[in-house]
Amino acid sequence: MSIKTNTYHLHLETGSKRPVIFQIHPADWTAAAKRHRTLSKKLRVTVGQDNTLLDEALKTADFMINSAPPKDGLRERAPNLKWIQTTSAGVDGLMPMTWLPKDITLTNNTGAHGEKAEESCLMALLMLQAKMPQVIQQQQNRVWKGVFTTPITGKTVVVVGFGDLGQGAGRAAKKLGCNVIAVTRSGKATKLADKVVSSARIDSVLPKADFVIVTAPLTAGTRGLVNRDRINRLKPGAGFVNIGRSPIVDYVALRERLEKGELCGAVLDVFDQEPLPPDSPYWTTQNLMVLPHISCDDPRYIAHLLDFWFLNFERFLSGRKLINIVDRQLGY
Amino acid sequence: MSIKTNTYHLHLETGSKRPVIFQIHPADWTAAAKRHRTLSKKLRVTVGQDNTLLDEALKTADFMINSAPPKDGLRERAPNLKWIQTTSAGVDGLMPMTWLPKDITLTNNTGAHGEKAEESCLMALLMLQAKMPQVIQQQQNRVWKGVFTTPITGKTVVVVGFGDLGQGAGRAAKKLGCNVIAVTRSGKATKLADKVVSSARIDSVLPKADFVIVTAPLTAGTRGLVNRDRINRLKPGAGFVNIGRSPIVDYVALRERLEKGELCGAVLDVFDQEPLPPDSPYWTTQNLMVLPHISCDDPRYIAHLLDFWFLNFERFLSGRKLINIVDRQLGY
User: Fold this and answer.
1) Among the listed residues A270, A157, A269, A166, the one whose alpha carbon sits nearest the alpha carbon of residue A215
2) Which residues of chain B are in CATH 3.40.50.720 domains?
3) What pTM does this model have?
4) Is the Cβ of B294 closer than 8 Å to some Cβ of chain A?
5) What's residue A148's pLDDT?
């Protein structure tokens, strides 16, 4: 292949151990390049897996799509590198960002997850309101027992974190006629929630929740935010959902309340250790539904990511500010 | 208790073997009478259980609320009886209605189930789209495996029967951005569905369904409507929901397709034999979720029924036509 002049080098790096929907294969690029024919002509592209070609690619790469970029001597190894795009929204695995040269821009994939997150939260709220964890348990035990529940309208949903995922959760709750209270870093009002409080004031709203949905990124400010004390003050019969990150929540305290039957149930999509090991107690915790980190991801994930990257590449070429630049202090 | 002149006698009859939420107890009446103080003064009320007081009550009853009214010699036993209200919406257990004197009006409780049915269908559609039957099975087997699914928008939902429950199902599907095709007796258009066909033309739409929701009452026209041949022509990967009545659907054929993994799953709320016996094969059928006949019922059921009855009683007093009069030929 002849290398064109006036082209940029984009390196796509992927890990074979990630779920297939998050892997970037040459066919994904070929399909995306067809959708963005003119822009793609300005690019020379390499695709690597498990870092086998990484060092060679870094020598000339201008841009890289990589959720686990190399942290050691990056500037020296990649003298032309200007911009790294992650395939994920969460960049907690890249914190602290002391490894990232100041003149390399990092963008994440926030915004890709909102629509699916909304549907997953809609489902989780309805399942908890209908006491599906109990109904599923009854089916396993071949027990027929009417578990009658009212419609969910009028219930209060506290959404912790109100970015892409949190706004999806908020839309879901509003669709069901619920009252939405958002907990955010700033506490700044938004019309997407009936009320917003800052995370410093979380204690004023958690005990009012019929349902809590954790959607926040993992940062210094959110780690341990929903601690044992706060779990213990959840209303009897409340439901709990986590589609954000597990270290935000004290799962040991949550399990204790679930096992005592004090909550109507929990839907957890994220865990400290993923895949969840076979001997984990979460698999069999009473009224706990274990989801394998699927709530926010669409199988068309990489196609959407590459479309988003092209949108940003067009902005890059015209000198506009990129979308989704990660704040290296805040970590999202 | 002194019997007032110009009062009517209302007899409430209930069965102790029905789920508690469908039983009428004196306290339910007392609460309802407080909500409808003026109207309740026109009534003398008796409350019976398991027919122990029934014959005595029939001698003077003008009205009766009873889902299993006596069929033998009713006119002779209840000379003043003008109106029977059932607690249920389905009156298939009262067919054929040769036992019912022509001058006794029968009203059912249709309309009480739509809101809850809508939420249950919303949940069922989302669970099937997200392949929750498979995810639940994985949890039972302690298997962590990403099951990634797209949002449901754009899928086609065929709703069989489009009364109170069916319109709830239709609203749910529209909320999710789905295309709604209703199958009704007449095939008459309604703005609540994108398309309506008559049940005679069901074969033209069932194979297009990504999801089928059966909501119809059991009548001579719906019994066996979704037969083996029609089940076999459902699209591979389709999802199936039944919140209507089980004899409408060939469950044996449905089970075969589920066990072969040809459908994404089924949510069945109704069965030929309820409670489902412990040795039933449905408990463990692959990708089948068994719900214990709860999808359309609100625990405030009797309170709502009595409010509805008072509304109709007011119409009775002013000589207007009652709401929810059952067509004795059609059976709903």
Assistant:
1) A166
2) 8-112+298-317, 114-290
3) 0.89
4) yes
5) 96
| Contact assignment for B148 to A293 by CB distance below 8 Å | no
Residue to test with chain A: of B139, B243, B274, B280, most A Cβ within 10 A: B139
Is the CB of A289 less than 8 angstroms away from the CB of B139? yes
Q: How many CB pairs under 8 A join A and B?
A: 116
Residues 42-81 of B with CB under 8 A from A: none
**CATH 3.40.50.720 correct for B114-290:** yes
ipTM over 0.90: no
pLDDT in tens, B180-215: 999 999 999 999 999 999 999 999 999 999 999 999
| Residues B47, B70: Cα–Cα separation, whole Å | 16
Exposed e or buried b per residue across A31-52, where buried means at least 16 C-beta atoms within 10 angstroms of its C-beta = ebbeebeebbeebbbbbbeeee
What DSSP string describes A198-266? EGGGGGGTGGG-SEEEE-----TTTTT-B-HHHHHTSPTT-EEEE-S-GGGB-HHHHHHHHHTT-SSEE
| Shortest CA gap A211–chain B (Å) | 16
Q: Does B175 touch chain A (CB under 8 A)?
A: yes
pLDDT higher than 60, residue A4:
no
pLDDT at site A177 = 97
Placement of tokens 């935000």 in the chain? A248
A191 vs B: CB within 8 A: no
Q: Does B120 touch chain A (CB under 8 A)?
A: yes
Contact B146 A294 (CB under 8 A): yes
Gap between the terminal Cα atoms of chain A: 38
Q: Residues of A numbered 98-117 whose beta carbons fall under 8 angstroms of chain B's beta carbons: which are they?
A: 115-116
Burial of B52 (0-12, 13-18, 19+ CB in 10 A): exposed
Is the domain covering A8-112+298-317 a CATH 3.30.470.30 domain?
no
Residue range B106-147, pLDDT digits in tens: 999 988 899 999 999 999 999 999 999 999 999 999 999 999
Instruction: Give the per-residue pLDDT at B23.
Output: 94
